[in-house]
Design brief:
This protein is an alpha+beta fold and 399 residues long. It has 3 domains: 5-95, Integrase, DNA-binding domain (Double Stranded RNA Binding Domain, 2-Layer Sandwich), CATH 3.30.160; 99-178, DNA polymerase, domain 1 (Orthogonal Bundle); 205-398, Intergrase catalytic core (hpI Integrase, Chain A, Orthogonal Bundle). It is 50% helix and 9% strand. The chain has 15 helices and 7 strands. A 4-stranded antiparallel β-sheet has the order 1-2-3-4, covered by helices on one side. Helix 8 (205-214) crosses helix 15 (368-398), helix 9 runs parallel beside helix 13 (323-336) and helix 14 (341-348) packs across helix 15. The longest helix has 31 residues, at 368-398. It is elongated and about 100 Å long. Mean pLDDT is 88; it is low at 353-364.
Length: 399
């Protein structure tokens, strides 16, 4: 039968059959399967020595001309040695491998490799910032898609967030390539929202005093003040455990599991630091000093924004700053107060410079006396800065 719209419309199932297939005389291999409730276009060919039958679509949804074109394309592929049916199955399989699904697999693998803070950041970026692309098949994610989304992230969350999100997504595709799930990395070649350089921002004494005074008697306020006093890392303070603190010996002992370099670290506590820890409320149900959930303190960005708003109301000019600037500032000021470089590195728990050499063989108690003396002097210097700031403020208000 030569197919026309009318001849196809008139097709029916012969008595006693469950379905009926009729082939087009004009294009061998192209046909119509007549079912009890519908009719579908089909194409039949041989591939890899086997007969294959592929469904093109419903007769009432695809026109005769379009169905013939699709049938010719499949027959041509088969003639050239390909298997259109297998290709479709492979395409369906690849389509099921979405960016969202691969991200979940990546996070499961990354959780055992990344530090907790790095893992939390990766999880947040993938679930929040890259969620709009989550339903795309991995092989369908193009460089243009990534670039467009990076621009959106930069507009909504800032250039730093875009750069971090870019790095996380690149890590996902690199991992997926190693797992055989992706053939390339579409992040490669996209532009960074901004070029980042190593920060060297050191806060002035007046700025430190303004930050100190803007801190409230809450978890975040105590954390910020401890960051200033000790020069330690944000997550080390934010996830501090009560058993790490020895109030009698005025020492905070950070276990190797919580330090960046994997080495245990003792931090002498000045009187100001001890006073802050004594003021922190304790919850007998958890050993963590700060926060109220399963982990340590959460809500860093929101708390920092609130602190900045309070500082802005004081009228004191403070340049834009980040929490890590407090660590750099402490190290710089300790040096200015006469602390020797190797002692500063010991306070910061660095393994570069002096500690990477001969000093690296000493045990964790090395320079304990020098570290305590330096941090006590730093605590006194801060007290004086805050005191002088109060005097200046009082003088201005009474003038």
């Amino acid at each position: 039968m030569r197919f026309t719209r009318q001849t196809v419309a008139d097709l029916s199932i012969p008595t006693g059959k469950h379905y009926h297939i009729v082939w087009d005389e004009a294009l061998p291999g192209f046909g119509v399967r007549v079912n009890p409730t519908n009719k579908v276009w089909v194409v039949q060919y041989r591939a890899a020595g086997k007969s294959r039958r592929e469904t093109i679509g419903r007769v009432d949804a695809i026109s005769l001309d379009d169905a013939r074109k699709r049938a010719r394309a499949s027959l041509a592929k088969a003639h050239l040695g390909a298997d259109p049916q297998a290709e479709k199955a492979e395409e369906r399989s690849r389509a099921a491998v979405t960016l969202g699904a691969v991200s979940v697999r990546y996070l499961k693998d990354a959780e055992r490799r990344l530090r907790p803070r790095s893992f939390e950041e990766a999880e947040r970026y993938l679930k929040k910032h890259w969620q709009p692309l989550g339903n795309l098949a991995l092989h369908k994610v193009k460089r243009a898609d990534v670039a467009a989304r990076l621009n959106d992230i930069a507009k909504q969350n800032g250039p730093y967030a875009a750069n971090r999100g870019r790095a996380v997504l690149s890590a996902v595709f690199t991992w997926a390539m190693g797992e055989g799930l992706a053939d390339g990395n579409p992040v490669v070649g996209t532009n960074k929202a901004m070029e980042e350089v190593s920060r060297d921002h050191v806060l002035r004494d007046t700025e430190l005093a303004a930050i100190w005074k803007a801190c409230r008697e809450d978890d975040y306020g105590r954390i910020v003040r401890l960051l200033i006093l000790t020069g330690q890392r944000r997550d080390e303070v934010g996830a501090m455990h009560s058993e790490e603190i020895n109030m009698e010996q005025a020492t905070w002992s950070i276990p190797r599991e919580r330090t960046k370099n994997g080495l245990p670290h003792d931090v002498p506590l000045s009187n100001a630091a001890l006073a802050i820890l004594r003021s922190a409320p304790r919850d007998d149900r958890r050993s963590l000093v700060f926060g109220d959930g399963v982990g340590g303190f959460q809500g860093w960005s929101r708390a920092k924004s609130a602190l900045d708003r309070r500082m802005a109301k004081t009228g004191v000019m403070v340049r834009p700053w980040r929490l890590h600037d407090l660590r750099r500032t402490a190290a710089t000021r300790l040096g200015e107060l006469g602390t020797l470089p190797h002692v500063v590195e010991a306070i910061l728990n660095h393994i570069s410079g002096h500690k990477a050499g001969v000093a690296g063989i000493y045990n964790r108690a090395t320079y304990a006396k020098e570290k305590r003396s330096a941090l006590n002097a730093w605590g006194e210097h801060l007290r004086q800065c805050v005191f002088e700031s109060d005097v200046e403020t009082k003088a201005r208000t009474t003038a």
